[in-house]
Amino acid sequence: MSLRSILSANRLSIGKAAHALGVDKSTVSKVCSQTYPGWEQKEKDFIKTLNERGYSKIVPDQFDVDTDVLVPTRSVDAFINLADDLADPGGSRCSSLGMVIGTAERGKTHTARWYVDTHPDACYVLYIEMSTRVQFLRDICESLANIRPLTFGACLALIHESCSRRSRLIIIDEADKLPVPFLELLRGINERCSVPILLAGEEGLKSKIDGVPRLRSRVRKPVVLYESLNAIDVAVFYSNACGIEIDRDIADALVKRSRGAWRSLVNDTLALARMGRASGIATVTPEMIEKLG
Question: What is the pLDDT of residues 157-169, one digit of tens each?
Fold first, then answer.
């Protein structure tokens, strides 16, 4: 039984579990997602401590879903490794633009938000189409320092100040929608402020950057390509997010329905959870999947 399953069965949030264990939330989150160094032993220790403190239930009495779970797929691991490499204050600032690409719904945004939640020196910015350069810079400033300066110059000064005090990582989501001049602006910020920037978006982002040599030369290798989920990923998600063990046939059926897309899998799981609670069972059956339509 995994730590995530124990939390689900005992209705423990990450925050409540951290309080009970006497550690911070990021440690619990990283152990649950199997990204903490030596997580196997840490997970055993945490489960033992929780059992000693009365949280010993191992079978959920109803079908609940923790949508904050991060499944450690190959793509997720590659994202985290790239982000850690860029954010390393002792690392090189040469080629300090990172790139994560993949079809919509593969889970890039979910991983980016998880990374920022568990790494206080990282910040997340969602690019909104039709934003002006100043609006875009103000969004970056708000994520970095909770301040929205009024002018272009004031924004640049705040970014420089925020990133000179301590090492930061800026993650820009939906970066494939950025016009080339905005990408050039980020290159300038990267150089002037010595701040690494990770760009996440659909496959068109790579083509756009490849068309500008001075951008392409600054991209850290490897470029991370998000793959579709497979049956093992789905089974791990159900174990960690729901405390439920599903067989290979069920996992295959869920992969086929979702087409390997993270968001579709989560939506189907939420619907199945509602069915399970209505019928008083904490499992997934082929009949339940058929009812999804």
Answer: 999 999 988 889 9
Q: How many CB atoms lie within 10 A of CB 48?
A: 10
CA pair distance 248, 165, nearest whole angstrom: 50
Q: Which are the contacts of 109, defined by CB distance < 8 A and separation ≥ 6?
A: 173, 200
SS (H, E, C) 70-103: CCCCHHHHHHHHHHHHHHCCCCCCCCCEEEEECC
- Domains for the chain: give ranges and CATH numbers: 1-59 (no CATH), 60-71+229-293 (1.10.8), 74-225 (3.40.50.300)
The one-character DSSP state at 176 is G
225: Cβ contacts below 8 Å, ≥ 6 apart = 75, 101, 102
| Residue in 146, 79, 142 with CA at minimum distance from that of residue 115 | 79
Name the percent of the chain lying above pLDDT 70.
97
pLDDT number for residue 281: 77
Output DSSP code: residue 128.
Answer: -
